[in-house]
Design goal:
It contains six helices and nine strands. It has 182 residues and is α/β, with parallel strands linked by helices. It has one domain: Glutaredoxin (3-Layer(aba) Sandwich), CATH 3.40.30.10. The strands form three sheets. Strands 5-4-3-8-9 form a five-stranded mixed β-sheet. A two-stranded antiparallel sheet has the order 1-2. A two-stranded antiparallel ribbon has the order 6-7. The longest helix has 23 residues. It is globular, with a radius of gyration of 19 Å.
């Protein structure tokens, strides 16, 4: 009888853990390298709308991040800022995306002199389409992940693990390898 109870308890615990993990990952499936990047139309920090179609025929770094003005997100954004001319020399457009609103993005961009659009995915639809929407510390946010989108509109590379202080340099090296700027 004790063995049956312990097996049942283990099975119940496994089900509860499975349900908990499932509820944490609320994003859809992530697009696969070589497939078309999901379209979007989102406002930037100035309220101007941007769509992926606006950047057809050029390389795009679409980076998702959890929250404006947090340490890792600020480090990552400032690294992009500090290397902006290297990205521009390669013909690459940087687009940051989080679930923060336009006003939050405006303050973040102004506080750190960010020279690229920060897109407000306030309803989370774009983050869901890219499979990065999640729950963290009781909040719904975008996971820190990046997609390089080629001039053809397809996903050229996906970074699931990002180190904020190294990512900009990593992207520049990979973009050169992919043929950006040629």
């Amino acid at each position: 009888m004790m063995r049956f109870i312990s097996v049942a308890a283990v099975a119940l615990a496994a089900i509860l853990i499975s349900l908990t993990i499932t509820s944490i990952g609320i994003a859809g499936e992530q697009p696969v390298v070589g497939t078309p990047a999901p379209e979007f139309e989102l406002p930037d920090q100035d309220g101007q709308l941007h769509s992926l179609e606006d950047y057809r025929d050029q390389w795009v770094v679409l980076y998702f991040y959890p929250k404006d003005e947090t340490p890792g997100c600020t480090t990552e954004a400032c690294e992009f800022r500090d290397n902006i001319f290297a990205f521009r020399d390669l013909g690459v457009q940087i687009l940051g995306v989080s679930l923060d609103d336009v006003e939050s993005h405006k303050a973040f961009a102004e506080n750190h002199g960010l020279p690229f659009p920060l897109l407000a995915d306030s309803d989370g639809e774009t983050s869901t389409a890219y499979g990065v929407k999640t729950r963290m510390f009781g909040m719904t946010v975008a996971k820190r992940q990046t997609f390089i989108i080629g001039p053809d509109g397809n996903i050229a590379k996906h970074y699931e693990k990002v180190k904020p202080d190294e990512h900009s340099a990593e992207l520049l090296a990979d973009l050169k390898e992919l043929g950006a700027g040629t």
